Amino acid sequence: MRMRQHVNPLGLSFQTYRDTIPKLDSARPVEVEIGCAEAQFLFERAVARPDSQLFGLEIRDWLVDKVNRWAKERGSGVVALECNANLHLRTVFADESVDIVHVLFPDPWFKKRQRKRRLIDPALVADIHAILKPGGELHFASDVWSLAIEALGAFEGAEELFANKLSPWSFWKAGNPYNARSWRESHCDEEGMKVWRMIYSRRELGPAGP
User: Fold this and answer.
1) Which are the contacts of 165, defined by CB distance < 8 A and separation ≥ 6?
2) Is 1 within the bounds of a domain?
3) Distance between CA 173 and CA 24 in Å, rounded?
4) Which residues of 46-64 are buried (b: 16+ CB within 10 A; e: fewer)?
5) Is residue 19 part of a domain?
6) Catalytic sites, residue numbers
7) Does the N-terminal or the C-terminal CB of the chain have fewer CB atoms within 10 Å?
8) Cα separations (Å) of 21 from 65, 80, 91, 170, 202?
9) How much is the pLDDT for 208?
């Protein structure tokens, strides 16, 4: 059984972005996975969608190095970037530059005193909306019920930003439509564990008031 190796995203060493800013090809779709870990999802996605530019954001530097080494060895276009997404998402990606954002099986931080370290918060939801192109897609999945419900509340609470592609306050019921699975989802499938998935489309904001 693989063990999670946590780092505290509130630590001082994660407050500054030190990696590169990717140069995007405007003619090709862009997909971003926040918290990619070993990037199994992105490597499988690269096979399913070889036309896409695939970026994994990961706060742990040793995993970033591993993913980029594997990508080079496999001749894959997957790129991992060392990034604290809660702070630097809009530093890395310009507004309206990304087609799909994937947030897959984020660390649950079960202890009450650690809840403030959880990934999904109103600021991140707003930043995801900002970097998505008009009509862009937000994909979330978790095998932790409490975390999935919390994320559902965050996304549904931002109804001016995102529209649930099934119906309001509903989990996606048609399985995984992306032809790719993270390591965690593969494990859940093997063990018969439930995965709660949500897929949202980006809404356009109305004109600002006077």
Assistant:
1) 137, 172, 199, 200, 201
2) no
3) 33
4) beebeebbbbbbbbbeebb
5) no
6) 107
7) C
8) 16, 11, 8, 35, 24
9) 54
E-assigned strands of 19-164? 30-34, 53-58, 79-82, 98-104, 132-142, 162-164
Q: Cα(194)–Cα(61) distance, rounded to whole angstroms?
A: 30
For residue range 141-154, list pLDDT tens digits in order.
Answer: 999 999 999 999 99
Q: How many structural domains is the chain composed of?
A: 1
pTM check: above 0.85: yes
In a domain, 57, yes or no: yes
Angle between helices 40-48 and 61-74 in degrees, nearest 10: 30
Return all residues near 51 (Cβ < 8 A) that are at least 6 apart.
Answer: 28, 29
Phi-psi domain of 105 (left: phi exceeds 0; alpha: psi -120 through 50; beta: other): left
Q: What is the pLDDT of residues 120-143, one digit of tens each?
A: 899 999 999 999 999 999 999 999
Name the residue with tokens 């310009």. Answer: 94
**Residues in the chain, pLDDT under 70:** 1-15, 108-119, 207-210
